Each structure stands twice: as C-alpha cells, then as structure tokens.
Amino acid sequence: MVQEHLAGEESLHGLSKRHRISRNLIRLWLVKYQAGEFNEEAAIAVSIEEYEARIAALERKVGQLTVENELLKKRCRALDR
Fold it and tell me: What domain count does the chain have?
C-alpha cells in the first residue's frame, strides 16, 4: 500500500477505503517505510515463511513415515504367526 501511494497510484483516502483500514495507520507505515524499518521486517517475514514451509514439509514426511512404520509392524506381526 505504501508503495502504491508513493508511486502516486492512489491517495491515502482511496487506500484506506479500499483496504478498510485507518489513514493514520497508512501514514504510520509511510513513516516507517521511509525510515527503512520495513526492510528488516520483510526479511524476517520471508524467513518465517520459509521456516513454516519447511516445518509443513517435515510434518508431512513424519506422517508418511508413521504410516509406513505401522504398515511394516503389521507385516512383521503377520509373519511371526
């Protein structure tokens, strides 16, 4: 939103109405953006997204291995009989 405003694409009022947020909040974001405060936050957000994706992939793998493990246990029990 800040970049849209700075590029002259939309006024604060227009952005506020379209996104249903306060103009004062957008102004605060403008000040932070111009001070370079969002650069670090954006990098952190990207890192968090990467970690969340990795966690989700690992959780899927754990689920898959759990199913395979249970299947192997059943087969071993059947062979022992």
Answer: 1
CA triple 5-23-4, angle to 5 deg? 15
0.85 exceeded by pTM: no
Q: Record the tokens describing residue 67, joined without a space.
A: 């199913």
**Domain of 63, in residue numbers:** 2-80
The DSSP H or E segment spanning 1 is: none
In whole angstroms, what is the distance from residue 22 CA to residue 14 CA?
A: 11
- Residue 39 clears pLDDT 80, i.e. is over it: no
The string over 17-35, giving b where at least 16 C-beta atoms fall within 10 Å of a residue's C-beta and e elsewhere, is eeeeeeeeebeebeeebee
Q: What would the mean pLDDT of 27-32 be, rounded to a whole number? A: 88
